[in-house]
Amino acid sequence: MDWAALSLSLKLAGLTTACLLLLGVPLAAWLAFRPRRFSPLLEAMLALPMVLPPTVLGYYLLVAFAPDSWLGRGFEALVGSRLAFSFAGLWLGSMIYSLPFALAPTLAAFRGLDRTLLEAAATLGAGPLRTFFRVVLPSAWPGVLAGAVLAFAHTMGEFGVVLMIGGNLPSETRTLSISLYDQMQSLDYDGASHTALLLLAISFLALSVTHSFGRRGAR
Amino acid sequence: MTGLEYRVTTLRGDFSLKAEDSFEGAPVSILFGPSGGGKSTLLRTLAGLERPREGKITLGDQVLVDTATGVFVPARRRPVGLVFQGDALFPTMSVRANVGFGCARAERPGRVADTLALLGIEELADRFPHELSGGQLRRVAIARSLAPRPELLLLDEPFAGLDRPTRRALSGALREALSTLQIPAILVTHEREVALRMGDRLCVLIGGELRQAGSLFSVLESPRDLEVARALGVETVVAGQILDRDEGLCRVRVAGVELLAVAPEGTGVEVAVAIRAEDVALETAEVSPRGSARNRLDAEVTSVDSEDALVRVHLDCGFPLAALITRLSAEALGVVPGARLRAVIKTPAIKLFARS
To answer: Which one of A55, B82, B87, B265 is separated from A149 by 20 to 30 angstroms, measured CA to CA?
Structure first.
């Protein structure tokens, strides 16, 4: 078992999920409750990573992260290290790659909310923040949780994007699924079976959590 | 009591709403009309959930909307409460939290307790909406809107979907709460019975246009045109007082005339007296009374409208009364304006609606 890879994957998935919650929940609220003039286009763009081949996404990210791109240059100027083939780059890529998985259930939960509840809150003098925390979130949190769990599981298991933009640096970019690929390449079948089983267990656990909360939310 | 004045034009797809009214000191205004007439849209416009294309809304001395000067006070800053059709209670909050939602933190506990008591639902405070019956939900919704003490309460079909005894109890509680708090209300309904029970003013909205507004009885007694009359249900509605009750019957005085009717529930004296035109028969004034009908009124024909095989006869018998009879009978009786006849109404045909 490659413990360094496991801890890296957990760190990456945890950080990505936390950031996606901070970013995705307000974004979903904005998409769900604002007048939807240009949102179809924006939503299509945000959902793109869901259908795009990971290698294609990885390619474009790599181009964007290149030391001579504005993003790569900006990051290097700011932090002093390169974005491509680094944990930071991997983290940024994972955010983009997993965003639709965090966003979709959250957005569905917000959209499924009875609109008159929001109007009732407004006629009772509540502003947007109070309405969100007192009315929206208490009803829609199973959707938010499902989004977080999916984003976490998805980041744990990502391979294509990581390989393209992260490479295979131990403790920096070698995640669990890369490690599994390595173990197969070096004919370490015992190690591979352990790693695969662990990833399977994590995926299964994640889906069990979302399904049990999805049911509670529907009640 | 705060006065309300509005003149709005709202466009929504191919539906347009035009309404204008002003009143002061009317406890309950009824917004009446067939469904799809724009009643809910008008209510939402007054609440601030709908932006009128053009117009002005003034509540007390506060301008809520004025498209000419670009004033639009959003819903959450209007001192207006709205009771939604279907209640819209927050499902994740207890009754106490629902009712307290609109109150400032400092005055929340007191307001919640007072308002729950006012609507007789103190014992529900710790329950959740999914544990309540239809009538209880409605009371909580009304309490929630009243707790912040708005200057105007709007109610969208507050009696819809409730059974008769529940309605009766709720309408009593609502009237009492409004008069205790001195909050004027606008109540949307398409049911005449609700209008007769609750209304002090009546506004008739048909096809997106406010056709007539005035005191309840003035509108009911003289609808402006045939469409308004149709919408109201063509019949005589007048104010009356119960003189005495005896064995389930009562004597009602209407404009100096006494009628015998089936006594309504309760002990109130003020009633709305409703008589359908088809329940009024006519006979010549000469014949001596016979038969079972208890109410025989001397009447003078004021006007006559023909409706195919039937004739609608408008009478003055101290109060205006309409009778619907066949053309044959009208010819035999010599029904022409100025003719003196006798109107005959069976006791069960006189419907009384308690108003106090």
So the answer is: A55
Query: Tokens in use for B181?
Result: 């708090």
Pairwise CB contact (< 8 Å): A122 & B144: no
State residue B242 phi and psi, 5-degree precision: -80, 125
Domain containing residue B274: 237-354
Q: DSSP for B318-354? A: SSEEEEEEEHHHHHHHT--TT-EEEEEE-GGGEEEEE
Query: Domain end: B185, B205, B231, which one?
Result: B231
- Inter-chain CB proximity A123 and B76 less than 8 Å: yes
Mutation to test the A interface, candidates B45, B77, B90, most A Cβ within 10 Å:
B90
> pLDDT category, B238, cuts 50, 70, 90?
confident
Domain ranges of chain A: 3-31+39-218
Q: Is A124–B145 a contact, with Cβ atoms under 8 angstroms apart?
A: yes
Top CATH class of A3-31+39-218 equals mainly alpha
Flag whether residue A35 sits within 8 Å of chain B, measured between CB atoms.
no
Give the pLDDT confidence of A185-200 residue by residue, as tens digits.
899 899 899 999 999 9
- A116-169 tens-digit pLDDT: 999 999 999 999 999 999 999 999 999 999 999 999 999 988 888 888 888 778
- Here the CATH number for the domain that contains residue B300 is 2.40.50.100
Q: Which two tokens stand for residue B82?
A: 């709205």
